[in-house]
Design goal:
This protein has one helix and five strands. 16% of the residues are buried.
């Protein structure tokens, strides 16, 4: 990505395929947080791309599956 995405948008880390919400920019890095919360991680801007609808749905389904396995599904 040539420009930094806006805070609050959903983006994909192309290094590992993880999808997260843009929480901020620190130095040259973009901080992403998992859609259902959790720890942020830093991504170099060249490894960030806008998340597709499919990316976003896949991340949401994966989180729901994890909640189900932990017994925390609501």
């Amino acid at each position: 990505m040539t420009t930094k995405p806006d805070v609050g948008t959903i983006a994909k880390d192309t290094r590992n395929g993880k999808v997260g919400r843009v929480m901020g920019h620190v130095g040259r890095y973009i901080q992403l947080r998992p859609l259902k919360g959790g720890l942020e991680w830093d991504v170099p801007p060249e490894h960030v791309e806008p998340a597709t609808t499919s990316d976003t749905l896949s991340a949401a389904v994966a989180e729901r599956n994890a909640q189900s396995q932990r017994g925390t599904l609501k």
